[in-house]
Amino acid sequence: MPEGAGGLRGGIDLGGTKIQAVVVDSAGGVRGEARHPTPTEGGPEDVARAMEGALREAASAAGVDPASLIGVGVGSPGDADGRTGIVSGARNLPGWEGSFPLGEALAKALGCEVRIGNDVQVAVEGEYALGAGRDHDSVLGVWWGTGVGGGIVLDGRPWLGRGAAGEIGHMVVKRGGARCPCGRRGCMEAYAGRAAMEAEARREHEEGTKTDLFKLMRKHGKDRLTSGIWERAVDHGDHLAKKLIDRAVEALGTGVASAVNLLDPEAVIFGGGLGVRFGERYMEPLTAEMGKHLFVDERPPEIRVAELGDLGGAVGASLLVAS
């Protein structure tokens, strides 16, 4: 692969609420970064323009032009086809029900090679290579954020299945349970995904349940209940926020234990906006809930919180162009 900009490459983490872009060196060190809000209206073309803007800002901070980079890796929600660069069904993004050639659009806009991967899978591979999973051969990543995503590395190799492996958020934890944003019932994401949690918080608030969640949201200039708003509400003793976080932890523990029973990984890594904020804080109840459902409970996997933080998804995405 040709060397560009002294071996620098870009990475973009496309999330439901934010777009994080980085420019990193050959050792994974961040030379420039930028964070932009994910558009809430429009369609894939609008999201692609916002991604281009974030990457250009990160490249400017690193003192390079995007066209001089080795390439840019992108972690995207939905069905991200690494061979074609097409992303389909990214339902957490505005107007993205069908398919869009994201790789082609960004490559044309940025003037360099662009490779596409699933957002959680590339973040997990980043943790496996550089973060919380670096001492293990097999890891299961659980990214608790707008939705609940998963990524798998088995015996040192990413496990993608036929292209859609790792959708742990859509494991059923309660048959006939709460409606999930995917349209089905009882998925883990219906209880633990931030979007579903917000929908439930709004429903209960409208029915008269007292909460400061939406007051905090407005106070901090947000249009959604971000991970930070949930944390502030819990810190302020908000009963509804605590109830819904506890409900999410119960669903996570149940679903993750089932995945562990199937895969028997050495480690489970919790990441994502809520996972990073609440992982250590709720480690004891989470592991206790998992323990209720583990078949081999005398040797549970090591439970870790992602170490690469907010930049982990973008750094992981950059590894798509490192090989």
Keywords:
323 residues; alpha/beta; five-stranded mixed beta sheet; single chain; 13 strands; 11 helices
Short account of what is shown:
With 323 residues, this protein is an alpha/beta fold. Helix content is 38%, strand content 19%.
What profile does the largest beta sheet have? 5 strands, mixed
Strand order of the largest sheet: 3-2-1-4-8
Provide the β-strand percentage band.
15-25%
Judged by helices, strands and strand pairing, the structural class is alpha/beta
Separation of termini? Answer: 8 Å
Gyration radius, to the nearest Å?
Answer: 19 Å
Shape: globular
Helix content: 25-40%
Mean pLDDT: 93
Low-confidence stretches: none
The helix/strand order is EEEHEEEEHEHEEEHHHHHEHHEH
Number of helices: 11
Number of strands: 13
Account of the protein in words:
Helix content is 38%, strand content 19%. With 323 residues, the chain is of the alpha/beta class. Strands 3-2-1-4-8 form a five-stranded mixed β-sheet, sandwiched between helices. Strands 11-10-9-12-13 form a five-stranded mixed β-sheet, with helices on both faces. The protein is globular and about 50 Å long.
Task: Write the SSE topology.
Blueprint: E1 9-14, E2 18-24, E3 30-37, H1 44-62, E4 72-76, E5 79-80, E6 87-88, E7 99-100, H2 102-110, E8 114-118, H3 119-130, E9 139-144, E10 148-154, E11 157-158, H4 188-192, H5 194-206, H6 213-219, H7 227-235, H8 239-263, E12 267-271, H9 272-278, H10 283-291, E13 302-305, H11 312-318
Parallel strand pairs: 1-4, 4-8, 9-12, 12-13
Antiparallel strand pairs: 1-2, 2-3, 5-6, 6-7, 9-10, 10-11
Helix pairs in contact: 1-2, 3-11, 5-8, 7-9, 8-10
